[in-house]
Design a protein that fits this description.
Distance between the termini: 108 Å
Structural class: mainly alpha
Shape: rod-shaped
Mean pLDDT: 80
Length: 445
């Protein structure tokens, strides 16, 4: 909209003609703006909507402003028509005509019925809605129309922007939500049985309520841009929508995980059975080895071997039952837990077998050391030395008899090494568990 010119002395004909041309252009601009506001899609939606909250309050004020706008425009149109009629009386306007035109174009010559402003419910320029009439200059009237138009357009544009952005997005998300609900139901993810099912119910309720609020009170979801004075300066508030969209994405990932379980559940259960079977066989081997150790090795502590874990077998049976009943949401966490426990059980069984067979490994190491030294002294022609023969036979009887006392046998092997080292002229051989230069070949052997 344009702005009227300033006041001044009596206008001449040229000034009047220029003023009328300017006012005519302003009239066309104002009329175009008002008609555009009248036909605005947001205004038509506001007229037909059942509004609540802040939108209802602001639309009530905006309707009054629009009504008052047309009242002002009609008064403005009438004043402009009167001025044109006065100017068209004569080609060369008289002094009296120019005085009348000056008063009409620059003075407070436009009367607006106060009852019309009061009926509209909008405050008048002077804040006196109860007066029978209000008088304005054309400049003041244009300024007043500019203010009312800007505030009304701002409200209409903001409501239309929210309605254009949020309901459609909510509907798309709701459609995706329904597809997710059907998929969740197919894999057993239901409210009360799985957290994801409860999340879907909550998201459904939130989106339903959000859409109702957006439709009835769009301005409650409008964030005005800071520092902007243009009508409609701002953006729709999508905080709640964005939060629920992220929540639905989390649920979709959870259901995808359940679907993955459904696809490879049989293979995972087969692998679990294999791992637990290997653990059982290893424990059985450890129990057999423990009996052998107790029979062949004396004066040593052999750890007790536990039996197979019945709890894991029961959980594996439960997993197989969940698979038969297609309870994928329960099978998924159970398989993850079982896979870790099964690996831990196999590791425990192997550690148990290693601990049980440790004495046999020590005896085998002592036997190998004894034979290696015997071969070493034989290469130096000392195999028939009586003391070496005696100490060798004593150590050999201890190592090849049952039960074998490892502590005594180890001392016997050490004495044989010492005698052999003395005869070979080498340094004192290694203490058991340590290496030395005198028995390098024996250690290698």
């Amino acid at each position: 909209m344009g702005v009227a010119g300033s006041t001044g002395p009596v206008m001449d004909r040229d000034e009047v003609d220029r003023a009328l041309a300017r006012l005519g252009a302003e009239h066309e601009a104002i009329e175009t703006s008002l008609l555009a506001l009248q036909d605005h899609a947001g205004r038509r939606l506001l007229e037909g909507a059942e509004l609540t909250g802040v939108t209802k309050e602001r639309w009530s004020a905006a309707e009054a402003s629009i009504t008052l706008l047309w009242t002002y425009f009609d008064a403005y149109t009438g004043a402009l028509r009167t001025a044109r009629e006065i100017r068209s009386r004569r080609r060369w306007s008289s002094r009296e005509d120019l005085v009348e035109l000056t008063e009409l174009l620059r003075g407070e010559s436009v009367a607006v019925a106060g009852s019309a402003a009061a009926t509209a419910g909008a405050p008048t320029l002077h804040g006196a809605p109860g007066r029978l009439s209000e008088r304005y200059s054309l400049i003041t009237l244009v300024d007043r129309m500019n203010e009312l138009y800007a505030s009304s357009l701002d409200m209409v544009v903001a409501a239309d922007a929210v309605w254009s952005a949020l309901p459609a997005r909510i509907d798309l998300l709701s459609a995706e939500l329904q597809r997710t609900r059907r998929l969740a139901h197919s894999v057993g993810v239901r409210p009360g049985e799985h957290p994801a099912g409860d999340d879907l119910e909550r998201i459904t309720r939130t989106l339903t309520k959000l859409r109702e609020q957006v439709v009835s009170d769009p301005l409650a979801f409008w964030v005005r841009a800071e520092g902007s004075s243009a009508p409609g300066g701002g953006r729709p508030d999508t905080t709640v929508y964005d939060r629920e969209a992220r929540a639905l994405e989390d649920v979709r990932r959870e259901i995808d995980a359940v679907l993955t379980v459904r696809q490879d559940a049989e293979q995972r259960i087969v692998r679990l059975r294999d791992v637990l079977s290997r653990a059982d066989r290893t424990l059985a081997e450890a129990r057999t080895a423990r009996g052998e150790v107790l029979a062949k090795i004396a004066a040593t502590e052999v750890p007790v071997v536990s039996g197979p874990p019945t709890a894991l077998q029961e959980q594996l049976a439960a997993a197989a039952e969940y698979r038969r009943q297609a309870q994928w949401h329960r099978l998924s966490p159970l398989l993850e837990s079982l896979e870790q426990k099964a690996e831990d059980e196999l590791l425990r069984a192997r550690e148990s077998l290693a601990a049980v067979t440790a004495p046999l490994a020590v005896r085998a190491e002592l036997r190998g050391r004894l034979d290696a030294y015997k071969a070493k002294v034989a290469r130096h022609g000392l195999a028939e030395d009586p003391e070496l023969v005696e100490r060798y036979e004593k150590a050999r009887r201890m190592l090849w008899s049952a039960p074998c006392d490892l502590r005594v046998a180890e001392q016997a092997v050490l004495r044989y090494q010492q005698v052999a080292a003395e005869l070979l002229g080498t340094a004192t051989p290694r203490v058991p568990g340590q290496g030395g230069p005198g028995d390098r070949r024996g250690s290698d052997a």
